[in-house]
Write a structure and sequence with these properties.
This protein is of the alpha+beta class. It is built from 11 helices and 12 strands. The longest helix has 111 residues. The two termini are 41 Å apart.
């Protein structure tokens, strides 16, 4: 129960006893004097005055309480306003929680979009690779068709030249044949020509006629071959044109896919840039402050802590705001829920008053992120103060964990067993003991215990070299306070040795 509530109950009891005592004394005094007021009997006069005094004394007590206590003044004159404000705070708190849920949903949607963009990019890359393979195949086929078309065109050219030569030879042979036939005709009309000459002319005519027929046959073969090559060349050229059109279409498709992929990668980069630099509760700075400082000193040191936290945020490229810092301190949720903008000086002054009224010799003051902050945001990081008394958690040499382990364990098994007992795992005894003592984890690593790996390896070697069950005690190497860090040492002995 708060000290103030206990004080109120005690004061009410004392005030009631005082009122009863004074009323009894006043009644007895009036009864002895047998006074009379307004013509009333002395007994009734005493009762009336006792009632009046009994009514006035509580009013005086309430008046004194209102003058001397801010809480009593608020309870008497502003209770309705406080109740109404409490309802407003509760309603605003619900709205704020809905906004937080909405922000979380938006973050989930953004993460899903980023995942979809990544999957889309992978799909586009796969399609692009497939299209590129098709283009490569089409290019190879086009090159083959071009080579075949070139070869056929060369053959057409050579056959055309051969046909022209054969046609020329055929024309010459036909001319020679006509001349031979005319000579034979003249010889047959010429009676003076001998039979031998006529026979020789007939042979020449037959030879030339055979030569003409041979040239005609050769020309026919060349024409047929030329027609066949032309028939082969035509589909080859058509296929080559079709492949060229397909290749152009594929190149256009690959250009469109490249454009889509570039756009997807840009969106993916945009989503990846929206990574959260600070999550709610992330610690920016931790400082130990004296508890006996004055209010002015506490306020000054709190402002200096804000500048230190600002330096931490600026290293993450958080821009500065109008206050000249990259962080802005915000009021607790109830004050924010009202919708009123609380000045920074009022927040710092309130925190300083709480520290000044506390009973701790030292305070561990932390600046933590109030809400999620994304990379690329152009605003300041919203932060809040958190303070804990810096009390002694573990004394030097205090045993934090005590267990046994088989001496036949290998070096690796012993090392793993020790590591699991010490590391920042949910099953770690060191972690559980530190949390139970209200100790803070390391500001950067988040671990509750710290030990040199060489010492850990040495302890594992001692366990490995043992022949029986070995007793392992994890101790605090030095006095450890709330702030930490908790430096550990490991002592390995035979299980039958005294603690």
């Amino acid at each position: 129960m708060p000290i103030y509530a206990i004080s109120v109950f005690v004061a009410l009891a004392v005030l009631g006893a005082l009122i009863a005592y004074l009323a009894d004394i006043t009644g007895a005094w009036l009864g002895r004097r047998r006074s009379s007021v307004f013509g009333l009997r002395p007994r009734r006069t005493a009762r009336m005055l006792t009632v009046i005094i009994g009514a006035v004394l509580p009013l005086i007590g309430i008046l004194v309480a209102v003058i001397g206590s801010d809480y009593a003044r608020l309870a008497v004159f502003e209770l309705n306003d406080l109740l109404r404000r409490q309802e407003q705070l509760q309603e605003s708190l619900v709205e704020l929680q809905e906004q937080v849920d909405d922000y979380e949903r938006q973050v989930l949607i953004a993460e899903e979009r980023a995942s979809d963009a990544e999957e889309r990019a992978e799909e586009l890359e796969a399609v692009r690779d497939e299209q590129q393979s098709l283009i490569a195949g089409l290019s190879d086929r086009a090159e083959q068709l071009e080579a075949r078309a070139t070869d056929l065109e060369d053959k057409v050219g050579s056959l055309t030249a051969l046909r022209d030569a054969l046609e020329a030879d055929l024309g010459d042979a036909r001319g020679n044949l006509r001349e031979a036939e005319e000579a034979l005709t003249r010889s047959e009309r010429d009676l003076s020509a001998t039979e031998e000459q006529r026979e020789r002319l007939r042979e020449d005519v037959e030879r030339l006629r055979a030569q003409v027929n041979n040239r005609v046959n050769q020309l026919s073969v060349v024409n047929r071959e030329l027609d066949q090559i032309q028939r082969l060349l035509e589909p080859t050229q058509e296929e080559l044109a079709a492949r060229a059109r397909e290749l152009a279409r594929k190149e256009q498709q690959i250009a469109e896919i490249e454009e889509q992929l570039e756009d997807t990668l840009r969106r993916q980069e945009l989503f990846s840039e929206r990574r959260a630099l600070f999550e709610p509760g992330d610690e920016l700075i931790r400082v130990v402050m004296p508890g006996d400082a004055t209010l002015d000193q506490l306020e000054s040191e709190l402002l200096e802590i804000l500048y230190l936290a600002s330096a931490v945020a600026e290293r993450q490229r958080v821009p500065r705001g109008s206050s000249g810092r990259a962080v802005v301190v915000v009021a607790p949720v109830p004050a924010q829920a009202v919708g009123e903008e609380v000045p920074e000086s009022a927040i710092v002054g309130n925190v300083a008053q709480q520290l000044h009224r506390g009973d701790a010799d030292q305070w561990v003051v932390m600046v933590r992120a109030f809400r999620r902050y994304f990379a690329g945001d152009r605003t300041q990081v919203a932060v809040q103060f958190e303070a804990r008394p810096n009390r002694l958690c573990f004394r030097e040499g205090e045993v934090i964990d005590d267990f046994t382990i088989s001496g036949d364990a290998t070096l690796l098994q012993a090392f793993e067993r020790l590591w699991l007992r010490i590391a920042n795992q949910p099953t770690s005894h060191v972690r559980a003991a530190a949390i139970a003592r209200d100790m803070l984890p390391h500001a950067e690593t988040g671990n509750y215990g710290s030990i040199d790996l060489a010492d850990l390896f040495r302890a594992a070697e001692e366990i490995e070299s043992g022949t029986e069950r070995m007793r392992v005690r994890v101790k605090a190497a030095e006095d450890t306070y709330t702030r930490g860090p908790l430096i550990l040492e490991i002592v390995v002995t035979q299980n039958d040795e005294p603690s």
